[in-house]
Amino acid sequence: MANLYFCQPHAKNQGMLRAILTLAELETMAREHQLTYIGSEFPILADSQEADHDFALLGVRSEETTPALRQGYYRIESDINSINEALLKLAR
């Protein structure tokens, strides 16, 4: 299962687990939101100059990889409200 984290750098929040996604849910998120691969390690957010607003990260483990997603962490290029709405749709 993939992990979805909400990060709030202004609050010195390194990342709070928001949801655990099945492979089908992960594929839906990847289709509906632009993802940017940021590496194989969870980023250190406190030192980041670019992280001045809240954002979400998606953690993909080796057993969850797909042809479109490799193992590692992805920044979701959508605002957190949009991601919350997408999570609510997945829960229905």
Q: What's the shape?
A: globular
* Helix-strand sequence: EEHEEEH
Helix residue percentage: 10-25%
**SS-based structural class?**
alpha+beta
Largest sheet composition: 5 strands, antiparallel
In DSSP terms, counting alpha (H) and pi (I) runs of 4 or more, how many helices?
A: 2
Task: Strand order, main sheet: write it out.
Answer: 2-1-4-5-3
Q: State the end-to-end CA separation.
A: 18 Å
Rounded mean pLDDT score? 85
Low-pLDDT residue intervals, each spanning 5 or more residues: none
How many strand units?
Answer: 5
Blueprint (SSEs and pairs):
Layout lengths: L1 E7 L4 E9 L1 H10 L2 E5 L15 E6 L11 E5 L3 H12 L1
Antiparallel strand pairs: 1-2, 1-4, 3-5, 4-5
Structure write-up:
The chain has helices at 23-32, 80-91, and strands spanning 2-8, 13-21, 35-39, 55-60, 72-76. It is of the alpha+beta class and 92 residues long. The chain has one domain (2-91). A five-stranded antiparallel beta sheet has the order 2-1-4-5-3. A hairpin with a 4-residue loop joins strand 1 (2-8) and strand 2 (13-21). The radius of gyration is 12 Å and the shape is globular.
